[in-house]
Amino acid sequence: MADITYNFTGARVLVTGGSNGIGYGIASAFAAAGAEVSITGTKAQASDYGNNLSAFSYHQCILQAADAIDDLAANFSELDILVNNAGQNLPGGKSEWDPGVFETTLAINLIAPFRLAQACKPMLSASTIDGGGSVINMGSMTSFFGLEIVPGYGAAKGGVVQMTKTLAVSWARDNIRVNAIAPGLIESNMTAPMLSYEPMTKPMMDRTPAQRFGTPSDIAPAAMFLASPGARYITGHTLVVDGGFSAQG
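RE: above sequence
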């Protein structure tokens, strides 16, 4: 059987929200491939998390705070790959139909990735890895489909896809490729409450040809491919990793 491996030895990678779920899976894969990986989380220190984060450099960052993003970027003099993974829906357990919560959700999931990409742009542009600097944003099935319970999250994730295209067009001249991943329903801390509620998950499973929900290990290889020389001619693209969910009419 084919064994697909990547060598990112010496590459500098920043994964936001790398302490759990998809972010942890991506960060772990890059570290296993030899990269120097930094992650962010909201807790004070890495030991506050259940996962073993010893393979990474940890930075606490509340991403919706503009000054926190600037402070985070200031920690790096060199950066090759930025994975804008951190996100949240229903912040504080509050309804996104509340205009204030809607705005907070946009700040976390759309404005923060834009600010961080902008802050990291000079370092990414100076990258010497094959294929140039790379930004990988995180979309969602709500980038394309309406989900009534999360209007703010859906609006933000739709914006992420469009932002990815615009940055790709603008930053190609600066040696930076910008792509996105749109996962299907992935088993993680964020989706755990949903996964335990069969009236919501059964229609999703019925629509998914793969007949399973995804795991972080399904998303990590997509991120590594998009950051690799094998994707040097790919920019502005959103790669859907959803077990076929979006292929159904």
